[in-house]
Every structure is written in C-alpha cells, then in structure tokens.
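ingest -> fold -> write
write: protein_1
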Amino acid sequence: MRILLVRAKPTFMDMILGIPIGLAYCAAVAEKAGHEVEILDLALEKSVESAHQLLRERMGGSSYDMAGMTCMTVEYPGAVETARVIRECDPSIPIVFGGQHPTIEPDEVIQNGVCDYLVVGEGEETFVELVRAIEQRTDPGKIPGLLFHRDGSPFRTPPRPATVDVEELPWPAYHLLEVDRYFEMESARYTPRHKRAIQIFTSRGCPWRCTYCHDLFGKKFRARSADNVFGEMKMLYDRYGVREYMIEDDIFNLDIERAKQICDLILGSEMNGNIHMQFGNGLRLERFDEELVRKMAQAGTHHIAVAIESASPRIQKLIKKNLHLNKAKDVLSWMRKYRINTLGFFMIGFPSETVDEIEQTIEFARQTELDEALFSIVIPYAGTEINKMVYEQGLYDPDEVARHGSKVVTIKSEHFDFYTLKKLQRRAYLSFFLSKGRVFRMLPKLFSLSSSKKYLKAIERNFLSYGGDSTSRVN
C-alpha cells in the first residue's frame, strides 16, 4: 500500500517544533512490513494556507491508499482541518488518527467524522495490522486497540493486551523527513549547544502515577538496550551530522546502570567530546547517584530538567508524585559540581492547595541550587486523573467550559482565583531569579542570538502582557 502520514500545521498557536517522531516510528514499521510510505510535515510551513496548498499539491500529484495523522491536544483543531482537506482531495481514502489526543478523547474524535479509524494508545503494532487488514480486505474488528464506525455506530475493539517491545522496534524512518529543516527551527527544548540537534527516545513508560500526567505509554518501564540506543545515536551522528541529542523519555534514569552504560559507550567512541546531550523531560530526582551525574557530564550533557512540582508533602501525596525532596540538595550540588545547567519544574494551583503551600514551594525553589525554574499554573488536561477529580468535585466554572468549548479549564478554589495565581507566579519568578546571583548568570543568555528570543518571550508573557484573562499562557 501507499501511505501518506501527515502532521498538521497548528491553527491557533505557533508551536516550537521537533521531528514528528511518532509518525517516523509508524512509518518505519510500515516500511518493514513492505509498504511504501511518505511523511508530510505541514507544521514546517509558514502558514495554514500554504500548508494546505502543499497538501493539495501532494494529493493531486500522487495516489495514496491510506492517510494517517497524529496530534496532541493543542494540535487537534489543525488536524481536523487538515483531514478535511485530505477528504476533499480524495473522498474515498481511509483516514487514520492516532497520538495523544485521540487516545485520551477517542469518542470525541471518532464522532467528529473526519477520520475512519482511530488508533488508541501506542500505535505501531495496531497501525501496521490495520494497514494489512485494509489491504487484504479483512475484518479490522479483530485488531485490538481500534475505534471505528460499524453499522453507523462507534465500535471499539478490546485494548491491546501488551505494550510494544521497544527493543524490537525499528529506528524511526529519518530518511522520510527533511531532517536539515528541523536544525533551522527554534529548539523544541532548552537552547542547544549545537544547531544540529534532534530528539530521540531511549525508553517508554513510567511507573509513577502523577495525577497531572498523561498515560500514553503506560506504567511499565520499557527500556531499549544501551547498544540499541548507542547504535541509533551513532547512525544519526554519521549519516545526518547530528551533534546534540534531546532525550525525550518518560523516565530515562529509572535503570541507573543502563543510563551509565549509554554514557560509557559514548565515551568509548569517536563521539566522545564531539556531541552534546540535554534532558528536558523524564528524569526522576531520586534515580541519580554522583557517578551517573559525572558520566552524563563527561558524555556531553549540558542541561537537565527535573520535575519537583511542589514542596508541600501534602500536595506531593495528593498528586501521587511522592518525591523525596531531601534528595534535591545532593543531586543539584552534583549537577553544579559537574557544570550541568539545571531547570526545575514547579506547579501552583492544585485542587485544595493553599496560598501558604504555594509560598512553601516558591521558597523551596529559591533556596535550591537550580539555575532556572518554570512555575506553571495547574491545568487539568483531559485524560488525566486530576481532570477527573476536578469534574467530579465541581472544581471548575461551567461558564468557562461553555465559552471555550474545551475540557481544558482552570481550577476553582476557595483559596485563590486565577488572578491571585498569576500574582503568585510573578512573585515566584522574581523571588527565584533575584536570589543567589541567578539574574547575573542569565544575562549572557538574554544577549545570546540563539536563546534571547525564547527568554524575552517568557518575560513578556509573564510580566508585560497579562491582563487577568484566564485564557493567557500558564507558564
């Protein structure tokens, strides 16, 4: 079969781009099964209009047997519009949706009518089995992990009983991407040391059950072997000239010894001293020892982010993060010792959280050795446990849901309103960056061509443009 995989151009916000790694994995498994695949990343285009024009030209110049799309919640409106363009070009083509938003809101997506099939959860195995069923005209109702219309009504097959074996997955189909174009885009994470930076996954799944987090990859930690990970990194180094790796795992350092082995393989290769790494996601504070920090630094790590969220033991228990806060001092001192920049993630405005507990988090952050901090206002995104809690307990404004037509709402509390949270958020940033000489360490970044735009936008967002509207950015 000839398959076109598409990432839509977002319609209502300008997103910072990385490679569409989910599509690249699905393309790889489909190619391995003998199918012909193309990836069209419309998010790279300058406007929605030019993106749709490019899609029409591609559809008009080729004939495809299937189209597939993936989207996060913020990408969903754009994906819907893009699917309509595909349908306009070829009314008979089967359209498949997958990814984060279709997984957490499958009923909404399938009832929208823009797709024929919806892949729920990890998509690679389900997708390739669906392709085979369509090609061979067999019953897709026997494939686990699908939702589609049958006899005019939504029909859901049983969940896929096992998670994907990440060690057996082929590497993403980078050859189907215009890789060099991503090197010219604003970084999807922390400002890279080298512009030829790319995202990779080395594992999937996280055993912790934080209530604010999505659960696309499940709670079972599945890690690729160190040799497998190093092989992909070396291929990217040799074939595409990649010189920085942005690790996107849910929890990279759960297996400390495996993490050390990856570093050792880098240190024993020609990549030693020639690459950089950053971890903008998925590091658990307790899963460090000093040797791992040292090896990560030697292997080229210049930045890590750790999610602390709250300094209140009660809130830690409420959100099921249960972080050992006393470990922060040692880990952050090791990071400073080995000259790794550190960013802490904090959240304010949890259900039942008091202003005193928010102040406790602000003071904790201020006293740490963190170089930077991000203070986000809690948003109970659809598909999370905290969203369920907010709706069950009525901790939201129904008028807000009616206005925005979305399940992404701000939390209603007797302890604060949104305006109070914004004031606390501003105070958090001022208190943090005006302590321990952080503002002086930030000055080079504010005057750097590679990073100033991102930091100046953050300053404008949090200190210059806010007018009390709860729809404004939350971090």
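write: protein_2
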Amino acid sequence: MERFEAFLKRKDIEISVKRYLVDALGAMAQGLFCSLLIGTIINTIGTQFKIGPLTTPVATVAGTEYTVGGLAMAMSGPAMAVAIGYALKCPPLVLFSLITVGFASNALGGAGGPLAVLFVAIIASEIGKMVSKETKVDILVTPLVTIGTGILLSAWWAPAIGSAAMRVGDFIMWATEQQPFAMGILVSLVMGVALTLPISSAAICAALGLTGLAGGAAVAGCCAQMVGFAVMSFPENKWGGLISQGLGTSMLQMGNIVKNPRIWIAPCVTSMITGPLATCLFKLEMNGAAVSSGMGTCGLVGQIGVYTGWVNDVAAGAKSGIGAFDWLGLVCVSFLLPALLAPLINLGCRKLGWVREGDMKLS
C-alpha cells in the first residue's frame, strides 16, 4: 500500500474532493467559456450587428456548415477535456490525447455531455498519467492508453451519464415551472452559493442543461452574490473591489467568509428574494447557452445569455418581441435589486454586531 501511495505521489495523482470537484470542475467551466460560450457570443454579435464574416459559413464538415462561432461551439468537448487535464497537471502527451477523449464523451453524452466529459476526462487523465514516461516508447503508449481508456469509457458511460444529467436538469426545470416561487428560491440560493464557493456554478448549469425559468433563477442567484458583495463591500474595497467582484467573481470573498460566515447572510437572503421575483414576476428565462445561467454578471455573460435566448425565441416564433418589461426584469434582477437589498440587509447584520467594518476587505 505504501508503494502504491508513493507511486501516486510521484505521478501527482491526488484523489481528493478539491482536485476533482474544485480544480477540475472550475477548469471545465473555463473550457466551456472558451468554446461554447464565446461561440454563442460571436454568433449573437454577428447576427445582431449583421457582420458578414461572423454570419457566413467558413467551413463545411460532413455536410454541415459552420460559422466562426459555430466552430468554437463545436469544440466544446475537446476544450473542456483539455482544461480538466490542465487542472489535473497532465503531462503533454496525456493533455493532447484528451482532445479526442473530450470530443467522444461530449458527443456520446448528448445534452448531458459536459457531465460525461468531467467524469471520463478525469479517469482518462489519471490513467494516462500512470503510464506516462514508464516505457521507452512513451510517445506510443501514453496516447494509446489515454485515448483508449477515454473512448472505452465514453462508449460505456457517457450515454448513461448524459441521460441522467438531462433527466435531473429536466426535473429541476419542470419543478420550477410547477412551483416557480419555491423553486425560484431554492435554485437561486443554491446556484448563488455555488458561484461564491470554489466550485463552478457555470459548469453545474452546463452539466444539467439548466435553462428556462430555472436558468433565470440561477442568473438571479449568481447576480445577487456578485453585485451584492461588490456593493456592500464598497466602503472597504472601493472601485477596484466593485469591478473585480461585480464583473469578476464573488469567490474573492471566500477567505473572508471562512473568517466570518455571517457576511454571507445578506447576499444569500438577497438571492432568496430575487430568485422568485425572476420566476414569478418577471418570468425571466435563460434560453441561451446553459453555461450562461451560472455566470451571473461575470463579463455580463449571464445578461448576454438571456438576450441571446430572447433573440432565438423571437426567431423561432416562441416570443413576439423583446419588450420594455423584459429589459426591466433583467436590469432589476441582475443589478438594481442586488445593489439595493444586499447593503440594506447587511446594515441590519452590522447593527446586530454580526458584521464589523473590515470583514469584507479584500487583501
């Protein structure tokens, strides 16, 4: 047993929640951002501003035409797998072999492809690392083992994992349609908390295919955390903190949350208010890329995703047009309400002595 543990250490294989559900999941979200999400944004910009080079097909593969954005979106599987491999510190031959693994697991996983990629890429990465540089023909053995393991697991597991993820996502979306108030609170709170924790709410939303009203609730929860922390910590962090948290990530506050968990009360309560407002009052739906549901105001990706969904719905005839109430709901849920509610609730926490000046200071 000691020899095996020494072998794992030598190969930098760390079997832990942090390595697999924090590092790998977070990296997967970055891979999604650099492929599916960016591709969606490029397509939206090209369509809305009628930019010819962005709307004209630049390649035809197996009879399917692809625009620039379409090519980026098509590479989401390989991008996720390579990002996961990078987070797991894979050597080059393993890392490059994951391109094929990601493509296979994402394609065979269907709508739940991102979750299939996560599981398959992790195992293929670790097995590839085990054999890496253990033979004199490493350039043959390592890619064969990594790709072989990945393809085998993709064929065996990916359809079932993808189907399970899709069913869970469908259930959440169905439950939100049936109980928009209760599920608006739950989805908004859970996804907002996930965004601030060192895990990826974006990857979770993508893995579950969370769109529709549930996606709108997720957007609300993520915005409540980001904008909430940004505004209520403004006295300590000024403009730099406002921008880094409001357009970056509320995860920057995790160190302070560990020191004083009560600073998390205001953003969490805010998400529990804005979530049902999004689902019940504004009927805010995220019908763009599911990964956008978990991005909040990070680079305004959540808002771009909602807008993209509106455009798609109008084009498909599911929505007559984009009205003033749509914009009012998006602005209120994303910015105004979190900016007003979180500081007010935090003021109450300060008066109770639960939160003190400097508790949200970023180092």
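write: annotation protein_2
Residues 2-164 form one domain.
The mean pLDDT is 92.
pipeline exit 0
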